[in-house]
């Protein structure tokens, strides 16, 4: 079952409970009402017997629904009971006054059947199945057309154009009673449409929730709020982006001494801590690469302080790793080390992939260089390395910082120049 089907099933279950609850109340009121207004005692007995049978049946159906059993069967049995009542009630009334031998069939058109039908239609719609009110309205139309047919073919029927005669005598205006068919059909159609719209709204809401849950995997809450306001945010574009790669040092050899369950649990805990820091600084999770993480700043929208936040994020990730090491002191004697590489430059971002699988990501030389800078952390014995483009952008933003932050960023220093595969010119690297 999909999530929307599970939710619809839950709503339908609740709706059926309410439907059978109201159906029991309607039967009780109908049977009780006949005690105060009836033509013969036989009429009361017949109503009492039918009402009692259907009340017991409804209670049994409620029991099945309560245990989540035979929901569709319960719905259609309830619908069948409603249609039976639409047939039984006018028959019982007509029988109690002497039937067709003593009373003109126009009596059938002057009963409270349309009013009762509207009540039953409303109750059936509470099950949130569009077909129920539509079938119920169709059943009434057939019954009512049958009554009109009998009336028009009875020699005792008097056709009139007087509204007063129509209301206060046996005479009838056929078109007046045809309106009951139109109104009942319209009400049944409207209720069916409302049920259909409600079900679609649930599906759309679940689909939107799933999309939001997917977005929450990549974006921090504040970035996610921006995304919801910008429809074109995932269109492919070229922009300035900060790319951060993080990787655990010697993870392969460390994982060999652990069971698969321990490795997965370790990575979940590690990633959970790192993601919390990344979201704190407005970073976007591009992807997890085993024990590594690729993060971007400036996606889906650029911010002037992207480089500042990337460096601050790296510092906090280092601090969070130290806390993690302290928590693991009983599991390992050697602390976990990580390398973080950061680069700032042009990149293409957007939904990339096939029609069946899309992934929001960034591609380009900036991504490749950030990855290679991260790999230099082990060679240079540094936990954080970043390119000159990041260093230059941070210097530009220094004036906007407070004294404490200025002190932190003033500790940036150049650690060397390295030749990077794919680059003709050496790359200057900095740390903090």
Give a short overview.
With 432 residues, the chain is α+β, with helices and mostly antiparallel strands.
Polypeptide structure, described:
By secondary structure, this protein is of the alpha+beta class. The protein contains 16 helices and 8 strands. 62% of the residues lie in helices and 14% in strands. Strands 1, 2, 3, 4, 5, 6, 7 and 8 form an 8-stranded mixed sheet that branches. β4 (338-353) and β5 (358-363) form a beta hairpin. The two termini are 52 Å apart. The model has no long low-confidence stretch (mean pLDDT 84).
What are the key terms here?
432 residues; 62% helix; alpha+beta; single chain; 8 strands
Helix count from the secondary structure assignment: 16
Residue fraction in strands? 5-15%
| Total beta strand runs | 8
Low-confidence stretches: none
Question: Could you describe the largest sheet, including whether it forms a barrel?
Answer: 8 strands, mixed
Helical amount: 55-70%
Radius of gyration: 37 Å
Strand-helix topology:
Blueprint: H1 3-36, H2 41-66, H3 71-96, H4 99-102, H5 106-109, H6 113-125, H7 131-152, H8 163-168, H9 174-216, H10 221-229, E1 237-248, H11 251-255, H12 260-280, E2 284-289, E3 292-297, H13 306-327, E4 338-353, E5 358-363, H14 365-380, E6 384-387, H15 388-397, H16 403-409, E7 413-418, E8 427-431
Parallel strand pairs: 4-6
Antiparallel strand pairs: 1-3, 1-4, 2-3, 4-5, 6-8, 7-8
